[in-house]
Fold:
Amino acid sequence: MTRPGARERENLLAKVVAITSGKGGVGKTTTAAAFAAGLAMRGHKTVVIDFDVGLRNLDLVMGCERRVVFDFINVINGDANLNQALIKDKRNDNLYIFPTSQTRDKDALKREGVERVLEELKQQFDFIICDSPAGIEHGAVTALYFADNAIIVTNPEVSSVRDSDRIIGILASRSRRAERNEPPVETNLLLTRYDPGRVAKGEMLTVEDVQEILSIPLLGVIPESEAVLRASNTGTPITFDEDSPAGRAYSDAVARFLGEQREMRFVQPERRGFFRVLFGRA
Amino acid sequence: MRLFNLLFQPRPSSASIAKERLKIVLAHERAGSHAPDFLPRLQKELIDVVGRYVEIRDDMIRVSLGKAGETSLLEINIEIEGAKTKAQLASAVA
Structure:
């Protein structure tokens, strides 16, 4: 077997992954941070990009808000080079953050500019995680346009499921792969804020319900967890919290994304042990 | 040990860390939401000016805007360690 050229090999390996949902507040940024951290922890050089121009938040969730000097728009406009804008994570050497701009000019995200930056990133990184803004406007479409893979972040709740369905439709019709008649964007479902207790009581859609409606492969189920808020409070991707159920569920999802088989955890109601009942801890 | 930590450790809660981080980032953003736009241009021009006297690469200058109490702080870090001054080069030739 001949070894492909270095440049070619890098391009083959580099994957652009869009984290998207249509609806806001379902956990896109949390997921982008957690996924990027999880891939980095497994040794893959990963960058996570904030596509939410005007409403920068990934920097806060990643805990690097005081280190932002240059941003995505600066690089697109040629005011700064890529390596000046990339922020290296202090906890993991494989992890980089690419913050967005706070400009109000939503059209600053020009498609040709984004393409140029992504091509440059592909030379350096294995995975490029794109944190999409909510909605189906310019920013959200730009975030998914160049994707090889997409992760649809969905809550087990009617409006979220409906919006996820719309965004799956947009991926299938308006992504670059669709426009060029290439193999479609590999699209997976990630169900977040899942509460097995309420599911058992019949108060919440089950994993199977959501999967049946959206009919895309399931990458993982992230249980509702207090640890997620604690992590964002301190600017820590939840995957770094290896004791929390949500952190472990994200690690599982990352492993499945990389092709491993992992049993679904955290989908059954937790059995409350004697001590937990006694001390009333949820 | 965990219980001991919970009871006695005066570690700040994650909520208070969140509040502190938000205060800092919002103070910065409210102070000059348009200000950072000129930073890249400022940096470019600084590189030009400094570059007339010492050899310098793009990544040896870092410009940032911050706040210290009531005062806005424009912080410019120029790394010139190991850089040769052009005067030295010129006099060596002469």
Summary: The beta strands of chain B are 61-68, 71-78.
